[in-house]
Write a structure and sequence with these properties.
The protein has about 400 residues and is mainly beta. Helices cover about 5% and strands about 50% of the residues. It has helices at about 10-25, 250-260, and strands at about 5, 40-45, 55, 65, 70-75, 80, 90-95, 100-105, 110-115, 120-125, 140-145, 150, 155-160, 165-170, 175-180, 185-190, 195-200, 205-210, 215-225, 225-230, 235-240, 245, 260-265, 270-275, 280-285, 290-295, 305-310, 315-320, 320-325, 345-350, 355-360, 360-365, 375-380, 385-395, 395-400, 405.
């Protein structure tokens, strides 16, 4: 197996700044997304070209990616691919509490299990289905349930429990599905142009709302007042006390422009939203922006096709060309040229509570996160020559440069 790894390794000047900011960050009781600077990023290219359609992680830390080659498994060092029958594309995955990876594909459904030599193999469950209920299209999602898994097809739900299938007919064709705890939500449309947002339970379906298509469910997230539902091109809605209402937030414009594809709750009552066109967005449960990561910040792509959080709180992101590990729980962050800092660092100094940095390209000052713009450095005035020393004197800051003292 070959590993293709790239790491955004900080230069010497960035390391110097990192050490200074480390002391600053450790002195502030804030969660990692409030800290100024960028998290460390590790990039891993896929061994072979593929486009992930789903990504999950098991308790051992193994990543499973559903794609056109089958299931690709990554252990942090090497890749292993488990093909589906006849080269079928794997489209959905879920892992249950026993560590069983359940798999959905184009007209296929089953699970992974090791053989006697410990090699993962795919086991199809199609032979357990009645011939008139065979899946004819894509399995959209797989949700582990007690005793098995629920496979979400186009017009049918395939409920595998206690070694047998129960087939559930949907009141329309599914266009989206998401889960929070034991609650499963679906978006559907009929042949007359009407769309519905519904909740499914073992006893049947209940309607949340309905209206003209499109009404496509992309993600569902737990909220202190109920369930947050992300709808394509419409933003976030709060479902609480059997009522669905639009959640007004400061990130609405970003959500409708960038199209959220996946969302996960983080460990600190915040959410990470993976975008089709805008990297990832971090927000709190009031809908306020806490941070963001885009291609400009070091991601290999602004398209996020899958996202999982590790037990230690770091994030794995799946892109069209590879994986990114976001070192979110490290106790320090990084400033480099992507955050506006130019040249090699000569000295850094905090003057009247503001951080200044002298570099070979001039003097820079740290601008705090405003909620719309992340923390970044901007040059001070027109000073673009070598600045080598700083001195704080009461209300004045003296700057030693190649052009003299200012």
């Amino acid at each position: 197996m070959k590993l293709f790894l790239s790491y955004r390794y900080p230069s010497k000047f960035a390391l110097c700044l990192l050490l200074g900011v480390l002391c600053f960050c450790l002195s502030r009781a804030q969660d990692s997304w409030h800290r100024p600077g960028l998290p460390f990023l590790w990039h891993y290219k896929y061994e072979k070209s593929m486009r992930p359609l789903a990504m999950v992680q098991d308790a051992r830390g193994l990543l499973y990616l559903a794609n056109e080659r089958g299931i690709s498994v990554f252990d942090g060092v090497s890749w292993e691919t488990v093909p589906l029958p006849n080269g079928i594309t794997a489209t959905a995955m879920g892992i249950d509490q026993h560590g069983i990876p359940w798999v959905g594909g184009d007209g296929e459904l089953g699970y992974l299990a090791p053989d006697t030599r410990g090699t993962l193999q795919y086991h199809s469950l199609k032979d357990s289905l009645p011939k008139d209920s065979m899946p004819r299209g894509r399995i959209r999602e797989v949700f582990p349930i007690a005793g098995g898994a629920l496979f979400v097809g186009g017009r049918l739900l395939y409920r595998w429990e206690n070694d047998a299938f129960r087939i559930v007919e949907c009141p329309g064709r599914t266009t989206g599905a998401a889960r929070v705890g034991n609650r499963i939500f679906l978006s559907l449309k009929d042949g007359l142009g009407k769309a519905q947002l519904m909740e499914y339970a073992s006893e049947g379906f209940s309607t949340l709302t309905e209206g003209p298509a499109p009404l496509v469910l992309e993600t569902a997230l737990p909220h202190k007042e109920g369930i947050l539902l992300g709808l394509r091109d419409q933003g976030l809605f709060l479902y609480s006390n059997s009522s669905l209402s639009k959640m007004e937030s400061t990130v609405d414009g970003r959500l409708t422009e960038s199209a959220p594809y996946r969302g996960i709750p983080l460990s600190d009552e915040t959410y990470a939203l993976g975008m089709q066109r805008g990297g990832i967005l971090i927000m709190d449960n009031e809908g306020s922006r806490l941070g963001a990561l885009t291609q400009k910040d070091g991601l290999p792509s602004d398209t996020v096709l899958g996202m999982v959080m590790t037990p230690t709180g770091n994030l794995w992101l799946a892109h069209p060309t590879g994986l990114t590990k976001v070192g979110r729980e490290l106790p320090f962050t990084l400033f480099d040229k992507t955050t506006g800092l130019g040249g090699k660092v000569q000295q850094l100094l905090r003057h009247q509570g503001i951080l200044y940095v002298a570099t070979t390209h001039g003097l820079f000052v740290l601008e705090e996160d405003t909620g719309d713009v992340s923390a970044h450095f901007r040059p001070v005035g027109t000073m673009d020559n070598l600045c080598h020393s700083l001195l704080s004197l009461s209300d004045r800051l003296l700057v030693g440069s190649s052009a003299g003292v200012f």
